[in-house]
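<instruction>
Derive structure tokens from the sequence
<data>
Labelled lines for chain and fold
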Amino acid sequence: MLTRGGRSVGLRGGVGMAKGVRFDPAECPGCGSPVEARYTQYRDARRPLFGALLAAGLVATFGLVALSLWATFYLPGLLLEGDDRIARRERGVLHFLAFVATLPVIAWLTRRWWRALDRLPRTFGYECGTCRWAGPCRVAASRGGA
């Protein structure tokens, strides 16, 4: 890590820039100089629709658990309806094992959704130090970044 006067310096020479971060626009629309925002400028940037998408993911997760519970009870019941060789207690164990087998799939889907939400770009207000252009700027972490 390069330092200038005790402060960390990014690859382009901007003070306090984090590695693995990209900005959109990458250059100032007014003068064409590269956007060099400090971490303190974009750390509190907002993700549009994050709350709504998070709530939708939670509802979908609980919906998948309920659907899985219903399906693992209903489908084996249809398959074993006329079979008197399997006792009621053994059917309950079969329903439970089928339900437990679906939980890792639901956990995997939920984890993928959370990762997709975490990768959403954030928007913050940026002002160019050269030409004083001010406007919205998006910041996104690169896949290999910090």
About this structure: Residues 1-17 have pLDDT under 50 and may be disordered. The radius of gyration is 26 Å.
